[in-house]
Amino acid sequence: MEYKLTSKAYYEALKNDRLLGLKCRACGAVMAPPSMVCRRCTGQDMDIVELKGSGTIRTFTTVFVAAEGREGEVPYVIVLVELEAGPWLMGNLDGVDPKAASMELIGKKVKMGHKVFPGDKYSAGEGISPLFSLID
Ligand SMILES: [Zn+2]
To answer: How far is the CA of 114 from the centre of ligand 1 (A)?
Structure first.
């Protein structure tokens, strides 16, 4: 079995603020980040699609305790966003004071960019994450 969309290609696109996903030819489900099989029907026949990174915050958490090696980054807010394209995607939230983050964030509209962060004690190098910001 081969990967239709590799993690490398996914993260390279993310570096350019492009979100790639997969669309299942059998059932139409759209997935991001990439997976080997359709999460709905386990089909393997999928097309690479470019998705809009806009969506709605469904939940969030504020991180106060850092992973080893990333102590300089806390506090920060992680959001789970339901994209208009369908998939739910996790990423950092920009432009909101983490100490002031409240339940009012849930339901807010966001757009996606990206964030490059240094690796922590356990990773092989830098990482790339979706970085969401509120649309006003
Ligand atoms: Zn499917």
So the answer is: 28
**Cα-to-centroid distance, 13 and ligand 1 (Å):** 23
- Burial of 14-30, coded b for 16+ CB within 10 Å and e otherwise, reads beeeebbbbbbeeeebb
pLDDT digits (tens, 9 = 90+) for 49-80: 999 999 999 999 999 998 887 788 899 999 99
DSSP symbols for 7-73: HHHHHHHHHTT-EEEEEETTT--EESS--SS-TTT----EEEEEE---EEEEEEEEE-SPPTT-GGG
What pLDDT does 1 receive? 67
Task: Look up residue 95 and give its two tokens.
Answer: 């432009």
Per-residue pLDDT band for 120 (boundaries 50, 70, 90) equals confident
> What does pTM read for this prediction?
0.89
CA of 45 to the centre of ligand 1 (A): 8
